[in-house]
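Deliverable D4.2, example record:
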Amino acid sequence: MLNTLIVKIGQTSIAGIKPENEDFLGSYVPSQKTDDAAQLESKGITIAIADGMSGSDGGKEASQVSVSQFLSDYYGTPESWTVKQAATKILTALNTWLYSQGQQKYGTAKGMVTTFSAVVIKSQTAHLFHVGDSRIYRFRGTDLVQMTRDHRVWISNDRDYLSRAMGIDTHLEIDYRASAVQEGDIYLLTTDGIHDFVGDKEIQEIIEAHKDDPQKASEKLVKAAAANDCDDNISAQILKVEFLPEPDKTEFYEQLTQLPFPPDLKAGNVIDGYKILRELNASSRSQVYLAEDTLSTEGTLSEKKGEPRKVVIKTPSVNFEDDPSYIDLFLHEEWVAKRLSSPHLIKVCGMDRKRTFLYTVVEYVQGQSLAQWMLDNPKPTLIQARGTVDQIARGLRAMHRLEMIHQDLKPDNILLDEFKTLKIIDFGSTKIAGLAEIKSVVEHNEIVGTANYSAPEYFKGETGTNHSDIYSLGVIAYEILTGKLPYGEISVERASKKKFNYTSARQYNPMVPDWMDACLQKAVHPNPERRYELLSEFLSDFSKPNQALLDRSNSQPLIERNPMAFWRSIALVQFIVILFLIYRYIIA
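Output generated by the structure prediction step:
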């Protein structure tokens, strides 16, 4: 983007009348002129302030470590993570370290304790994190609003203590808040040396008088606190939002179309050193080719040493050459693959050369799809089924740890190589939590995935979650064991009105144990809130009996547990009654 997030930052911190300054503050603004430029969009701008607790032996060190490590570690977290996920993990780890160090160095839980407050501005949203009695204010227009609440308990009019702080306990509860940002907004972070000695009205007057000069405003606030007989360290930090990034459609499309679509490729064609061998698949949306990398002789285990490496090339369809949404998703697939690392996820290749056309290159998996394997193995053993599901789950778990949801998990998107290792492919529909926080001109509102394997919430226009991928995996597990789908064939047109009545897997395969059937039923429950929370929970119940789950399943009415069996029972009873009435009529 040519337009970008621009801020002004001012910060001042002094010891005041105390012998040393136990406050600490810092900020980081990724520069557009360095390699960090991409982080300005993916991570945003960060400011943080901390106040070492006065009764803490290592309060000064605690405040310094908390701010400096937070600013450093935040920009090292995956781009796919949300701001909340990244900050929470960092602060939780910092809290554990502070508590441990406090115990080791000073032999007390109050050894290294500090307050902590931070603001992360990413795209057009401010993310606030807060522990303790430092404060975050927002000045908008002429209004000053305190955005945090003090974690302070008053014993009397002149005595109080921190009820929450970094390093005081092994458990950390962080206040988090997200709010929309407007150009001209000013965020003020203070330690209690400011807000305990300068009233809100005076703070507002100082900021308003110097709103175009945050540094001068911070200095004036510190001087005002000192003039009001502050007996503590004094620190103020001010961030003014000068300019917000606003996605531009023309600029966005120009970025997407920097590379032209490749022409129709035939066997023998060479593109950027890749020699096309044959077409593997073609659809209205893309073409997939097997190719040799003539610039590389690093073969896989299945290839002879010295022979060109085989790769798979995916090209976009010319039908969508003027469709920004389609091109965005096509590029998005490689972005995802670059950041994933698992033996059960397809690997991206071709990062070593300049491209002349738009295409993606991934590793070639010599084998078959899971869909074909199921056709070839219609009656797998329970051990085979568990092993297959476990491998798929391992790949999904690697994605979920990065806050990525596959959203199009199906047997055709899972490959088995010659060593029977499963690999998930096709990340074109993957939802990335971190990127979803960035405002874009492109909206992807269409239903993703394949109807038979897509969770019911997608058809209601709801956002996918981990539960949605677990649903898809549950459907696949059911199909491996039965050759059927738990809710039959589903069409996109009728899916939103479909009644999802579960058919017991035992009806199609009596070898499926009751406890495994109960596990499958929970995994594919129409309500995402009633599915498994984590893949590990699903795998555990799929591998061994969970009596509590089985008891809950058996306590359900038969019409909910097995609708088909219920109606068959009703029909049988009716048939017997009819026979009885006919018999009575004849003998009468």
